[in-house]
What does this fold into?
Amino acid sequence: MIDALFFYLFAGVMLTSGLMVVVSRNPVYSVLFLILAFFNAAGMFVLIGAEFLAMLLVVVYVGAVAVLFLFVVMMLDINFAEMRAGFQKYLSLGLVVGGILVFELVTVMYGDVFSNGSLPIAIEIANTTQLGGVLYTKYAFLFQIAGLILLVAMIGAISLTMRKRVGVRRQSIADQINRRPEDVMEVVTMPSSKAQNKAKAGAGSVDHE
Amino acid sequence: MLDFIMQDWILDLGWIVAKIMVVIGPLLIAVAYLTLAERRVIGFMQLRKGPNVVGPFGLFQPFADALKLMAKETILPAGANKVVFMVAPMLTFILSLVAWAVIPFGEGLVIANINVGILYLFAISSLGVYGVIMAGWASNSKYAFLGALRSAAQMVSYEVSMGLVIINVLLCAGSLNLLDIVEAQREMWFALPLLPMFVVFFISTLAETNRAPFDLPEGESELVAGYFVEYSSMSFALFFLGEYANMILMSSMTVILFLGGWLSPIDIWPLNVIPGPLWFIIKIMLVLFVFLWVRATTPRYRYDQLMRLGWKIFLPFSLIYVVLTAGFLLITDRLPAVVLG
It folds into this structure.
């Protein structure tokens, strides 16, 4: 009973915050609602016993990706009126795309993809172990390929945005670390204060600060 | 039948609430005395006395501070986004408390013994950045916003190396469960074979908690007080409490991952009669002392140096160490056994 209660709680909050992501006027609110939606999705993962996926969702999407989203959105200078002007123009297109997605979901739900009983989750073994056992043996090559695709995307992004600027003064960290006191300052042995005072008294002036 | 179930349910709930109280109560007192300890320790290191007037040895100072903060007026800046402004300190404080649910204080002494305990801790600690960003943005102030931006970049950067250090520990322990990780250190604490990772982890926790020498998000000399510059009274106090509770949390994480949790250093007579939770607390206090020691003795990092340390030194180093650890365990046939279905 409590499971069902939590399911409807998580599902309800997730759908509402999903809607708010689209409807919010302020883009920062949109991102904050997106984070709330991620959280509730993680809660649903916990409910079906997939605690590893739940934690991964929080670590990767909430802890890193959404932070960068928020970072960018907060720095943007957005004209809200201008943004809302396109709403009517894109409404029909949005409805078509949304309709197709709903149709696909319904066909999957009533098709025979999920009809062969419950999903195979063995409770006795921790699902971290299960995932690792499948991912690094049966699907090792696919896993490697996924990693390579991400690497290529990363290198692509760097090479697109990196430009060599001329005339920029850069710091040479090695030089900074290798700098020794002997290279830049001279240590002078001063005569003792007694001798100094004597010399100053001879000159006739002693200044105090 | 139904009221029988209901009764059971209420008993369970009461039991959980009692357990939470047993953890949170001492934690808040510890936070209060950590602020005092910080001022006293740094005072002695700098040849001052520190607060020593209120009560014997200044022991009532934290309560005087708390009373003062509660009596102050809560100020909402005119241009602030009110909802986000008020939610940010609450979020910081709540996040610093919920993580304690999975911390084991002794053999089996844990509120929630979950399979992915270490991932849960990692996830919660990575959420701490939201309180800071939201505070910085909602304050509608340049200093606060700059502090928040710095903090966001800093915490995301150091999380990466922290994650890789945790992978090193997991390779040796063979489990994500915190109780299992501590049990795996019965023969030898992970701080010894993974000493470089221990150092990297400790420095990363300093950066993660925004402590000196990585306290750029606050940066008194340049940003006034950084992200919480607009906060006053209780909302400021919540940030303050959250920061210190996070320090204690990160120390306990260090103790669990590297210093053998509740285990005694060596299993001989006078040491192993001391109960586990006491060992755990003693070790946390030692790590916290190092936190304060570092603050008293190191100057603040420059921002570009901070980023360089995180991305160009810690990240490659811990990545190489993961490969080395895995290779060593594989060659010497010490990889922990994992039962596959």
